[in-house]
Design goal:
21% helix; alpha+beta; Alpha-Beta Plaits; 40% strand; five-stranded antiparallel sheet; 315 residues; 2 domains; five-stranded mixed sheet
């Protein structure tokens, strides 16, 4: 009798899948690390400034098949792009005033006006959450003059209140509308955008079914070469990872030569050191099949590997 043994390794994000679009938060991460993030770790989720981790080693080669006289290993790699069901946008707001009460009053007025205005694009009050961040005193320098010296003292000059506004929306196109309305209410700091998929199990069911189909197709092709897959037992290894948009933004500098200008006999050389970013999706060439490859906009990318090891009967 044949026995079938399963060794299944999971590294799947449960409940809801979150991804981030590039926002001001991304630039802070960029400054804290010399490496622009491409992905999280495969075997161990490590988000140390979103530095590139083990996942690159897992998916930088095509799937392989391995044969010897006692073992056959078949492998397949699948990638699937998925659009978010919802988006969570975080705005930051700060207000400076002479008193704490005055700061809160003005901040709440700005937030209430913003919440009222976004009703015009279908965002209701229950889709908004205001998160209090901090209230801190602000100091200024006061100079105390003496006969032979000056002394500089920090004295209270007012207070600053900071709050974050979390907004849940259904359509990606509404983000631009939110930015316009926020700017009209003097809210300019968009911190980040979270991508949310409600049912990631359905995504993995789709990928797993495609991987099983690929494994069986490979097995059938090799059987045409009269390879006997009759085995004493089998082992199955399953690995998966989720790559969010923020992890795939890369920095670049546009090529340009220095501009030289002569002014009043002086030569001025200007340098353009502007660093830009772009969405650099995970490359498709490492996978046997890519599902929903036609998606152009930043999306959540699900990476999946399935290996089946056949330990053959000795003849």
């Amino acid at each position: 009798m044949k026995t079938l043994t399963f060794f299944i390794a999971f590294n799947i994000v449960t409940i809801a899948v979150f991804g981030q679009a590039a926002g001001n938060w991304f630039y802070n991460q960029k400054k804290s690390s010399s490496t622009i993030s491409n992905s999280a770790g495969f075997n161990e989720l490590s988000f140390d400034s979103y530095a590139q981790q083990n996942i690159e080693q897992q998916y930088t080669s095509k799937s392989i098949s391995y044969f010897n006289d006692t073992v056959i290993v078949l492998e397949t790699k699948i990638l699937m792009n998925a659009m978010a069901d919802e988006y969570s946008v975080i705005f930051g707001i700060s207000q400076v005033g002479e008193t704490i009460d005055n700061c809160h009053i003005i901040t709440n007025e700005r937030i209430n006006k913003f919440v009222t205005d976004i009703k015009n694009i279908g965002v209701n009050k229950e889709n908004v959450y205001v998160d209090f961040i901090s209230q801190v005193p602000i100091f200024e320098i006061e100079v105390e003059k003496k006969l032979f010296s000056k002394t500089y003292h920090e004295v209270p000059a007012g207070f600053e209140v900071k709050k974050n506004i979390h907004i849940s929306i259904k359509k990606n196109s509404d983000i631009d509308k939110l930015l316009e309305i926020a700017a009209k209410n003097e809210i300019y700091d968009i911190i980040k955008v979270d991508y949310i998929i409600k049912n990631n199990d359905a995504v993995y069911d789709t990928i797993r079914a495609e991987a099983i189909k690929n494994i069986n197709r490979k097995k059938a092709d090799f059987e045409k070469l009269e390879i006997d897959f009759t085995s004493t037992y089998k082992t199955v290894l399953e690995n998966s990872n989720t790559v969010f948009p923020i992890e795939r933004y890369s920095a670049y500098k546009a090529f340009n030569s220095n501009q030289t200008t002569k002014t009043s006999g002086k030569t001025i050389v200007t340098n353009n050191n502007q660093v830009d970013i772009f969405y650099n999706k995970y490359p498709y060439n490492y996978f046997d099949k890519v599902l929903k490859a036609e998606i152009l906009e930043p999306s959540i990318q699900f990476l999946y590997t399935l290996k089946v090891k056949y330990v053959l009967k000795k003849k």
